[in-house]
Structure formats: C-alpha cells, structure tokens
C-alpha cells in the first residue's frame, strides 16, 4: 500500500498524476476541524501535506502523528507553527523563488494605479463623468524619479527595486537587519532606519512577512512620519499595517494614497470603511495570481514535497536546522 498524502489545494492533472504515482492522495477542501474530523483516519496516516491557506497548528499536528513533511504552495508560512513542526522534526517546504517577478509586477501595478489614480478615474469615466476636458481635479502624482522606500529587501523587494531603478529612475531606500550589497551595487539602493525611510520616501512599499516583530509595524506613529504626498503599498501581509490607522490617514489625507493587495482580515469585510475611500486601490491578494506563476508554484510545491519525503531538504526548506537534529 502506498503511503498517504493530504492535498488541500487542487493540482492540475499532470502534477496530480506525479503525486498519485507514489502516494495515496486524499484531496480535502481545507484544514478546518470539521474536514479533519471527517477524514480522521487518513489524517492519522498521512506522511505528507500539500496545499496553501490552511492553518497548521499544534491541534492539527496532534491529529497527524505520521506526518513527515509539509509543503506550502506559497512563500509565506505564517499559518504554520514552525516551533511545533521543529519539535517533531517535520520538514516545512515553501516556494520562495518562482513567484518573485509576478509579485514585483503586482507591486508596480499598485504603485502606478494608486499614484496615477487609475482605478478611481476608470470608474469616473465609466460612470459618464468625462463630458469635457479634464481639469486639475483629475490630476495625479508622478512615479518616475521619486524615492521608493522598501521594507523587506528580500527576493521580491529586490525585484521591485530593479523595476523601479531601471524602469522609473527611482531613488531606492531600504531597511534591513543587514546590508544587501547586491541591491546597493545594482540598484544604487541606500540602507537607512525606518523613521528616516518613512520621512524621505514618496512611496513606502511593505513586502514583509507576518511575524510577531512585524505586526502593526506601520501604525499611527509611522503613518504620521510619511509625507502628505506619499503613497503606501502593502503586498506582504495585511497585519503588518494597522488598517484602522491607515484608514484614518487616508481619510484625513495625511498621506496621498495607498495600494493594498493584503488585508488584516481576508477576504476584507465588505463593510470596511477603507473600501469607501477613493484614494485606496484594493486587490484581492493577487500578488502571485497569474496562470503561469500559480502553475509554477504548484509544481514547485509538489517537487518540494516529493523531495522532502525522500529525505532531500537542501532546497526550499524553511527549517533545515531542526531536521538535522533528528
Ligand atoms: C498566495 C502568498 O496568497 O506566497 C504567498 O505567501 O501570499 C501568495 O502567493 C497563496 O498563498 C498562494 O497559494
């Protein structure tokens, strides 16, 4: 009998058949308690878990005593209790490389859309308001040659810096625990402290993962430091920005605009005040959501799971050190 794997995100046929070749696959709709209870025996026997968007915490792990490897079809792994996985030497695999350019493209889309009021003016035209030549009422602000401050100079941050530097002649600032000399050499990026970045940047771009250290890193105090002409972009994780404080800043126009792909609660509540404001561009967490990239992520996630279950965790593993102790 083949060992069992739980799949909580659908795979295209070509990828699914590679998995079923070696494993007994049970596809479930999510990892909520009811689903787990309905498939209790399979969860008990499963050696692998592949998918995205489900919480993998101690309670779930207790129901999966045979689990050897989790593979998330995402770069972010904030839904995983890494400490609990480490305790049991369960490998956690992710997809940090294949989505970089697509997410960076999304960030540029948000920068352009929020600065140039693309979605707001699109609605204005479609509502029949364009009956004569536009006036300064419809003017917006430039993106090119401005200063871009990046919080999170990882792979995606660098891909954003590349686009901004070469495509838009932007001046790049960034914050990071240690210097990224590659970004400094290639994109003339300058490392500085958070306060300085907030005060100097025309665009503040948040591409940070969700951790206890990053939660509400951008709150009322930080928003108050930003220029009244500045634009905030969040394409990392929603809770890094205090959404209530951001709503206030956008309402009072202490900053010019925001472009958001992520929210404190997703899907964002339909009655959120934020959604009533004209100076915010909102997207439904589409950072990596192109056909090409989502396929590449699924393929990467599958390869990662197959590799980890065969003992190969040299690539795309979040917790290699915890596995060494096993
Ligand atoms: C998606 C993401 O939300 O990779 C991430 O961390 O946030 C996104 O690509 C999703 O997890 C992909 O399935």
Q: What keywords describe this structure?
A:
14 helices; 5-stranded parallel sheet; 326 residues; binds 2-keto-D-gluconic acid; elongated; 7-stranded parallel sheet; alpha/beta; 12 strands
Q: In terms of per-residue confidence, which ranges show pLDDT below 50 for 5 or more consecutive residues?
A: none
Number of helices: 14
Strand element count: 12
Main beta sheet, described? 7 strands, parallel
SSE string: EHEHHEHEHEHHEHEHEHEHEHEEHH
SSE class: alpha/beta
- Which distinct ligands sit in these coordinates? 2-keto-D-gluconic acid
**Overall average residue pLDDT:** 97
- Beta-strand percentage? 5-15%
Name the strands of the widest sheet in spatial order: 8-7-6-9-10-11-12
Q: Helix proportion of residues, in percent?
A: 25-40%
Describe this structure in words.
The protein has 326 residues and is of the alpha/beta class. 38% of the residues lie in helices and 14% in strands. The chain has 14 helices and 12 strands. The chain has helices at 13-22, 33-38, 40-45, 58-62, 82-87, 100-115, 118-126, 155-168, 181-187, 194-200, 220-225, 243-251, 291-309, 320-324, and strands spanning 4-7, 24-27, 48-51, 69-72, 91-93, 147-151, 171-175, 190-191, 203-206, 231-234, 257-260, 280-282. The strands form 2 sheets. It has a 7-stranded parallel sheet, with helices on both faces. It has a 5-stranded parallel sheet with strand order 2-1-3-4-5. Strand 9 (203-206), helix 11 (220-225) and strand 10 form a beta-alpha-beta unit. Helix 6 (100-115) crosses helix 8 (155-168). The protein is elongated. The chain starts with a strand and ends with a helix. The mean pLDDT is 97. The site of 2-keto-D-gluconic acid has 9 residues, from loops.
């Amino acid at each position: 009998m083949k060992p069992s794997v739980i799949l909580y995100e659908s795979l295209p046929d070509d990828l699914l058949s590679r998995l079923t070749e070696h494993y007994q696959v049970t596809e479930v709709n999510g990892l909520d308690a009811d689903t787990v209870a309905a498939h209790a025996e399979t969860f008990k026997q499963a050696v692998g878990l592949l998918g995205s968007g489900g919480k993998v915490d101690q309670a779930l792990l207790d129901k999966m005593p045979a689990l050897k490897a989790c593979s998330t079809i995402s770069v972010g792994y904030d839904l995983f209790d890494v400490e609990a996985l480490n305790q049991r030497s369960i490998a956690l695999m992710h997809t940090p490389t294949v989505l970089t350019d697509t997410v960076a493209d999304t960030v540029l889309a948000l920068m352009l859309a929020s600065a140039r009021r693309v979605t707001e003016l699109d609605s204005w035209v479609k509502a029949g308001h364009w009956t004569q030549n536009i006036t300064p009422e419809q003017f917006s602000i430039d993106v090119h040659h401005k200063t871009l401050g990046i919080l999170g100079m990882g792979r995606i941050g660098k891909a954003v810096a590349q686009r901004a530097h070469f495509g838009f002649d932007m001046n790049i600032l960034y914050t990071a625990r240690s210097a990224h000399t590659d970004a400094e050499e290639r994109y003339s990026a300058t490392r500085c402290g958070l306060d300085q970045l907030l005060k100097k940047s025309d665009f503040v771009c948040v591409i940070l993962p969700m951790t206890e250290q990053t939660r509400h890193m951008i709150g009322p105090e930080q928003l108050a430091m930003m220029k009244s002409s500045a634009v905030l972009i969040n394409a990392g994780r929603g809770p890094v920005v205090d959404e209530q404080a951001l709503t206030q800043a956008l309402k009072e126009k202490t900053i010019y605009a925001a472009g958001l792909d992520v929210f404190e609660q997703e899907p964002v509540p339909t009655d959120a005040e934020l959604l009533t404001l004209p100076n915010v561009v909102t997207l439904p967490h589409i950072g990596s959501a192109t056909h090409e990239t989502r396929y590449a992520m699924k393929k990467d996630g599958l390869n990662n799971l197959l590799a980890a279950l065969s003992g190969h965790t040299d690539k795309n593993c979040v917790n290699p050190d915890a596995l060494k102790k096993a």
